[in-house]
Amino acid sequence: MDLVNMKNNEPVDWRDDKTLQDCMMYMLEKEMMCDVTFRVGDGRKTMKAHKNILASRSEVFHRMFDGSLPEKREICIPDIDEDSFTNLLRLVLIVSFFDKYTHYRNKGQSD
């Protein structure tokens, strides 16, 4: 835990008052429980992510992790810069939750 209640110096759960999307973004940014490592850009910057999230939203990532020859090591992607790849990882999370919200909202309107 990396937060402390300033009033009585007790540990605070980082998930408190966060939505599922907030928690997933926090885990991505803090590289918590990540299970895949990418090396991106010319400098081969190390970036970590969650296979299940990427594979659930992208056929390319799904095949990369679960195809006939799944990647087992670090994955090098030299033709994308660090900022763009970071934005891609964040976008996958945001779109995942937006799609779910839109699906349920639209389903409720048609009932």
Automatic annotation (TrEMBL):
It comes from the Eukaryota. InterPro entries: BTB/POZ_dom, SKP1/BTB/POZ_sf. Residues 34-92 form the BTB domain. GO terms for cellular component: cytosol. GO terms for biological process: neurogenesis. PANTHER family: AXUNDEAD, ISOFORM F, BTB/POZ DOMAIN-CONTAINING. This is BTB domain-containing protein. It comes from Mytilus galloprovincialis (Mediterranean mussel).
